[in-house]
Amino acid sequence: MIWRLLFLLLCSTCSPKAKALSRVLADVARVVSNNAQSCSRAVKCDSKSSQPSPRLSRSLLASEGAHDVLRRALSHRGHLVLSLDEDDASMLTQSRATLENRLFGAAGEAERLLGVARPLSAQRDREFVGVFEGEESTFVEVRFDRDGKALPDGVDGVEMDELRLILGNLARQVIDVALQDAEMMGLVDDMTCLRFAPHEEDLVSSTVQRLSFYDASAKDNRELGTHTDTSFVTVIPFTETPGIEVYDPSLDAWMRPEAQPGSRADRDVLVLPGELLDLASCGRYCAAPHRIVVAKGMKRMSTPLLVRARRSALFRSEVPMASVWASLQKSSPEEAKSSLSADLGKQKQQQLQQAQLSNVAGGTFPTPPQFVIPVRRGSRELVRFYKQFCTDAQILSASPPVVYMKGFASDAECAAILREAARRFQGWSESSVISDDGNARHVVERETRTSSTMWIKSSEDAACQRVLDKLAKKAAEAAELPVGNSENWQLARYQVGQQFRLHTDTVEDFNDLLPGGRITTLILYLNEDFVGGHTDFPKLGLSVEPERGAALLFTNAVLPVQEPFGMITESRAAHCGNEVLEGEKFIVSRWFHPVSYPHGLQTSNESPVEQEAAA
Question: Of 144, 221, 401, 553, which one's alpha carbon is 20 to 30 angstroms from that of 244?
Answer without folding.
Answer: 144
